[in-house]
């Protein structure tokens, strides 16, 4: 079912006419004209029943004996057929602060994730008549979409170096895909998703400590690897420059000793105390 616009007229004239009929009906009773009084009173009540107030960003869906007639979005004091059944619906933007969910990511690790969704009713007919409760529908589908994304992607790429799309490192893209997924799910309820973003993302408490240690170990290994690569480059450069300048002739044994000493100095975590060799490497 699609929304269709229902035109309405200004309610001020009908308010004036309705009140005038009530006053005229009261005077008819005073002048002992019961039939005229009854007709005027009934007409006045009928006209006043069709008057309604519609506020900004608000709609009024009307049905006539079960058939959807249309939605009124004109604001102010309006008048429609009093026989219509009317139901107001808010068109304002709303926030859904999703609860924190515990889900297994793509690698099977338990994580905690939550999302914030900004949504708005765009089709009042679908929202009221295509789903049972559109507010509850938004909550359930938002939770389902968050669970789907969390289980489809890894939290990070520690277990699989080829996993380039992760929840932790690609939050912007995850928010975009989550918004698109929610927009498709909620379109059948006449709801438009204005924004969707991850508001909470962390490992579950039972593995948070182990994962923290693992991240620290990974960082340490990565740092040491970079240090070793830099030290090897510096040692290679030192040997090359010594050979080019002809400062000293080094055989293989002395080269090995120099490489060992330089690597200890460059790769050590603490400052190294030099030892002066007054003798020779050879006996």
TrEMBL record:
UniProt key word Transmembrane helix: yes
Keywords carried by this UniProt record: Membrane, Transmembrane, Transmembrane helix
Membrane-spanning residues: 12-31, 37-55
Any one of the GO CC terms: membrane
Pfam families listed in its UniProt record: Band_7
Keyword Ligase in annotation: no
Residues in Band domain copies: 49-215
PROSITE patterns per the UniProt record, alphabetical: PROKAR_LIPOPROTEIN (PS51257)
Main location: membrane
Membrane protein topology class: Single-pass membrane protein
Name of the protein this chain belongs to: SPFH domain-containing protein
Protein species of origin: Spirosoma terrae
């Amino acid at each position: 079912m699609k929304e269709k616009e229902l035109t309405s007229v200004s309610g001020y004239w009908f308010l004036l006419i309705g009140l005038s009929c009530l006053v005229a009906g009261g005077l008819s009773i005073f002048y002992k004209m019961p039939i005229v009084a009854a007709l005027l009173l009934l007409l006045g009540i009928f006209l006043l029943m069709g008057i309604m107030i519609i506020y900004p960003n608000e709609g009024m869906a009307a049905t006539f004996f079960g058939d959807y007639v249309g939605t009124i979005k004109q604001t102010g004091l309006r008048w429609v057929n009093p026989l219509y059944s009317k139901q107001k619906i808010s068109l304002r933007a709303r926030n859904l602060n999703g609860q924190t969910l515990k889900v297994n990511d793509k690698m099977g690790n338990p994580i905690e994730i939550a999302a914030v969704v900004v949504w708005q009713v765009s089709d009042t007919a679908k929202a009221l008549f295509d789903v049972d409760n559109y507010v509850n529908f938004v909550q359930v589908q938002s939770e389902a979409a968050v669970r789907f994304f969390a289980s489809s992607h890894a939290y990070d790429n520690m277990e699989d170096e080829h996993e380039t799309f992760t929840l932790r490192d690609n939050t912007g893209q995850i928010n975009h895909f989550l918004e698109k997924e929610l927009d498709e799910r909620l379109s059948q309820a006449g709801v438009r998703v204005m924004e969707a973003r991850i508001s909470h993302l962390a490992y579950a408490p039972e593995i948070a400590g182990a994962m923290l240690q693992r991240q620290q170990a990974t960082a340490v290994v990565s740092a040491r690897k970079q240090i070793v690569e830099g030290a090897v480059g510096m040692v290679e450069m030192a040997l090359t420059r010594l050979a080019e300048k002809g400062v000293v002739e080094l055989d293989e044994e002395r080269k090995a000793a120099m490489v060992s000493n330089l690597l200890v100095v460059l790769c050590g975590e603490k400052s190294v105390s030099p030892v002066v060799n007054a003798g020779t490497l050879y006996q």
